[in-house]
Give the backbone structure.
Amino acid sequence: MAISPPSERIWWKETIPKTELIWILIAFTWGLVMFFMMIYWHGAGEQNLSNEAYRIDAAKFAQKAQAMVDQHQVREEGGMPVVHPPPGSDVYLIARLWQWWPILEFEKDQSYRLHIASMDWQHGFSLQPVNINLQIHPGYSMVVTLKPNQSGEFGVICNEFCGIGHHTMIGKIYVVDK
Ligand SMILES: [Cu+2]
């Protein structure tokens, strides 16, 4: 049992059994393979997006998001504004305890600059079901240029545990055909 000391006091000089060595080697090799797969998926998997990060002031970011909502809101869903920003524009998505605000509506095959920032703690942007993931760190804006290639309704979930309401932090993105 791990609670009691090892029988040999100089335990680190014992030879490692061959089977354990093989397992270490397999795990290490697999780790290396997955490391290079990250680079491969960036190009081939279309999931690890190229992103930019900028230091921001949360209050100023919130003002920009509010201005976008005031200008381009098209309807409301359960108290949440739905925004249809013009193609090519800068779009702002706020992550905060515990919501993604607002709901965004993009046009298919149009390009947007999506800025995502947290107003409080660290959150994880996870677009479902396409599985695009971005870490959202407080004090920074994560920016991706995106061009939706399929229309439909997409869910945004938080995949970074952020407290008691974490599981309710669900947002929405629509992609509509023009
Ligand atoms: Cu969370």
The chain has a mean pLDDT of 92. The pocket of copper (II) ion is lined by residues 123, 158, 160-162, 166, 169 (CB under 6 Å).
